[in-house]
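Ticket reopened. Same input as before:
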Amino acid sequence: MAPLHEIAHLGHVELLTPHPQQSLWFFTHVLGLTENGRDGDSVYLRTWDDYEHHSLKLTAHHTSGIRRTALRACSEEALHRRVAALQQAGRGIGWIDGDPGIGPTYLFTDPDGHEFELYWESQWYQAPDELRPSLKNQPQAYPSTGFSVRRLDHVNFLAQQTLPNGDFLRETLGAEATEQIQLDDGTIAAQWLHFNNKSYDIVYTNDWTGSRGRLHHIAFATDTREDILRAADICLENDVFIETGPHKHAIQQTFFLYVYEPGGNRIELCNPLTRLVLAPDWRTITWTEAERAKGQAWGLKTIESFHTHGTPPVDQPH
Amino acid sequence: MAPLHEIAHLGHVELLTPHPQQSLWFFTHVLGLTENGRDGDSVYLRTWDDYEHHSLKLTAHHTSGIRRTALRACSEEALHRRVAALQQAGRGIGWIDGDPGIGPTYLFTDPDGHEFELYWESQWYQAPDELRPSLKNQPQAYPSTGFSVRRLDHVNFLAQQTLPNGDFLRETLGAEATEQIQLDDGTIAAQWLHFNNKSYDIVYTNDWTGSRGRLHHIAFATDTREDILRAADICLENDVFIETGPHKHAIQQTFFLYVYEPGGNRIELCNPLTRLVLAPDWRTITWTEAERAKGQAWGLKTIESFHTHGTPPVDQPH
Amino acid sequence: MAPLHEIAHLGHVELLTPHPQQSLWFFTHVLGLTENGRDGDSVYLRTWDDYEHHSLKLTAHHTSGIRRTALRACSEEALHRRVAALQQAGRGIGWIDGDPGIGPTYLFTDPDGHEFELYWESQWYQAPDELRPSLKNQPQAYPSTGFSVRRLDHVNFLAQQTLPNGDFLRETLGAEATEQIQLDDGTIAAQWLHFNNKSYDIVYTNDWTGSRGRLHHIAFATDTREDILRAADICLENDVFIETGPHKHAIQQTFFLYVYEPGGNRIELCNPLTRLVLAPDWRTITWTEAERAKGQAWGLKTIESFHTHGTPPVDQPH
Amino acid sequence: MAPLHEIAHLGHVELLTPHPQQSLWFFTHVLGLTENGRDGDSVYLRTWDDYEHHSLKLTAHHTSGIRRTALRACSEEALHRRVAALQQAGRGIGWIDGDPGIGPTYLFTDPDGHEFELYWESQWYQAPDELRPSLKNQPQAYPSTGFSVRRLDHVNFLAQQTLPNGDFLRETLGAEATEQIQLDDGTIAAQWLHFNNKSYDIVYTNDWTGSRGRLHHIAFATDTREDILRAADICLENDVFIETGPHKHAIQQTFFLYVYEPGGNRIELCNPLTRLVLAPDWRTITWTEAERAKGQAWGLKTIESFHTHGTPPVDQPH
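Engineering reply: fixed in the latest deploy. New output:
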């Protein structure tokens, strides 16, 4: 079934860091995000092609992890229909005032406990003079510092069980699974879900610790694969830990680099080339345990820490 | 207003050529398309990432130009709702059997007379052994010959008047204009329309000859800008006429190369990087006559033939 | 004849600017050079892969242009042999103390009057802690700001007559012409000379004003063509004037972008891919007037200002 | 000490394969080499930017490995001076007629027993009509099939002991070591030698089996890193075994992909970006055992087979 098209796209995420100064340095100096205001323990940061107020809310906290993931509805009506569905599913928390630039926001959790917010109203970003772009079809000047990521691309959640969460997003929000991993015992070990033409927006991966509510990684899209190779050199020079890559995922075929930001959260730099899922009747691609074991597209073995590092850290395994 | 999301994507086009052998050589050897059957004067050709039967139907004809443009609906119901709207608009022609791999097809024309077809049923492509891809989330093996374009990306029509055609696609099919050019006298000289996250699928440009039903170009998307630079070298070595580029459009920011295939039709190789229009409330960007006169993004003047070459050729100007 | 191999490479150049603050901003913020000391009206700047003290000496002056071009000899003995040849040619000026980091330096001029310096002793650059590279086979950390050019690549001089200058570098320093343009009347209109495997280090182009000692451009090499495309965007955002490009030269096949730095000097960003002249018996490639008229490799017409803009400006034409 | 500059460059190599048909398919269809004649069990193959007759002589044999490595002298005189030095070193075999296109050739072996040939006369390649390039400064048309490697880049020999072989090339041919690995016990485990501005042409690596005369790999240079990413996809689709990569070597900073051709020989696709060793007083970079253990530049662990696979295969370890 085609996506319902009531969720427009991933909006922004709130990321927690126990090392706020260093994390901020990473996101601005290395990743190339632009600060757009502060509020208490949080700094609002934006990618240069984000038309909204912010792409990332970076919040000082006693530990790492993700606090909240925001989705934008396609319209006022779509928002209210989705809120009704969330309430019916019993996972709604309620309305709150939105972050700066964001209107009324409905809070809910997925079955695993990750907090989400859903909103429609969004004030388009107006760049100040020094960030005014040369081309009027772009919200902000292309930065000349760091990786210059174009957008927040997706969130990969760790969950006690993938399937109920994927089902929840399908049933309440109209997400569709484009790809998934199914173990030999039938377990869905991971699922890639999308709302529109991007081949994935939200991913669930089974948490080896059996914990709930944790984060595997958030990802930012670069314009080119060359940007990712350049990013690797910049990480190397700035003592940013590179976990694995650059390489090409077999699943979704994304070109990737995984690094840890100073707060401990895993950050993916991803480039999908021009791949889109355009077929309205896309059939979920299911990868077997054996296929997953073959590693990445060009033969790189999946690194061990990919199955042991999540945030916040927990005593493991359960 | 957000797109209606009843049209999934551009399906395929039928291109006419007075030099079928040479055009076929161009599309297979130079562009890297794969033949997938023949029928009378037509050869069906596909890009490697097309999940459907064909991306291009190349038909021998006494002259050049585009015969038909196919759009796929998002569902059976969407198809019928759009057909009703087309009938109501008085532009429907009627149902025909579809091309190979395509189900019942509804024929209509835009106000300028370009033929379109709309369909829902589409048989997913099954690659024969020698074209079987290594990765199961891809319909066909990535070719090692020519430019290896990923998909048919968009069609740019010449029309006597842009605006009625853009309005027609908006009203009947739910297209939205993402960008446009408005002359000082108020005329909309060109309009870029999209159905989903791609920033454009169909473009109308005012025909300087006052003719109807002509083609400015069709475009194929490459994975990278490097692919386009490599394409330029391959064109150079194969005596394929390069009209202009590589460069970056200011409008839509697409990286481009324009060449003429041996039949005379202009072909664009385009790379949008990872740019998408995700905002459901995107506001049409309007470029003024003065802004258009500034040329391309990095200052290249728009080449004169861009305003004089269309297919089929006509006596000009009126 | 193979190069004599007594000149190792282009060392650094001294560039003059009437707008020293803005030029410095361009070279550090946009181009990504690193400051390495100041002296009077001059700032020393380096590319990240330069093993010597500096690649560019930027000097405040009442006008623009190039003051001096430095070449490094292959050895102490080679230096003295070349100095003897220069003295014999009657073009020597004499020994001076070198710039910071550079030992005894012999000053001379080419027939057109451009000042050169030749030296052997060179103190290898030791990066301070904050610029220490992660890889020990690299002199300085790869910068995360601006274009991150790897090296000063070549100098293109304007000269009243190309040929005597090319001959002079051949006879005194062992340069060889890899390519040249010969007009229909037999005039050598431009000549590309090299000392080693790079396909050119010094270029002479006939000055349309009949002036002596002027500069067409200096060039910095980037690692990739993508770096040049990214550079174009950074120039666009920073109001740096892009004269022409990106495109590929037919002559030498270099991928290029020409911009003007704020002092008015033309700067080329160039990428030769992995092309080298390895043949010891390379035969000078001669391009005819008609071939030159065909423009760049992929058909871009050479921009008019390429034949009218040099530094310093002069009343023209003679 | 600067290189002596009597060896111009690596000419060609003769590679042995027990599967000549499949190897030929690999080198022409996948790698994009062009056949230029046959002789007995050998096929001559060329990269598109080779000005000489051939870059690779592929010979059917009962096993894999490298038979001979050809170097071109800088001049007739340089050839004779180097032959005298080789004779004096007691490693000369004698003069033979050269391969097609190559003049009188002097045969010798390095201390480990690898056969080399040295020559001066070389007939410049004249492309037949169908391979005639569009740009006259290029020997052959750029191919539109396969990886389109520009040149044979280097040879990496396995040797019982690296050091005597490196010393031999230094003393007889004027090679210089740009980088090397030194184990904690003082052993030089590998050495990278160059003759000119390329940072390496010949590499020796200690053979873990204690054998003599074997091959670690030969390498072909691509124009871009993107070419290597594309090559990985083409290998994936053509069932060419990818051993490791793409990644960036810490040593020499080369971007690489290692594959096995069907005959079993390891082939590297390499891209050095625009890195050159220009310093005439370059100091050999020595990497310690600990530094080598850190793996590649961005953290990829060196794959085990890199230390166990050489050609021809031998019973191992000694």
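The mean pLDDT of chain C is 96. Residues 7-125+149-307 of chain C form a domain with the 2,3-Dihydroxybiphenyl 1,2-Dioxygenase; domain 1 fold (CATH 3.10.180.10). Please confirm and we'll close it.
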